[in-house]
Amino acid sequence: MIFKPTILKFTPNKELRWLGRLFIPGLFDGEHIFELISNNDGTTTLIQREKFHGILVPLLKNSLYDTKAGFDLMNKKIKEICEINL
Hints:
By secondary structure, this protein is an alpha+beta fold. The protein has 2 helices and 4 strands.
């Protein structure tokens, strides 16, 4: 599936937030958020989340668990890439 998200917020080294939609607004919208939080010890915590809105969300609720698995894999890869570049 190909999405053309709209960037809602970009703060370098802090936050990236975008909105993806399925076909038309209000049908099935997903706001994806990446937050970077300094731990003040040379490490950073990545928080990744998605907020789903729209009339199809209740119907597609069970398929969203697959989305979480994809996010978990993405987080592992991001961690791997960051640690290689230390």
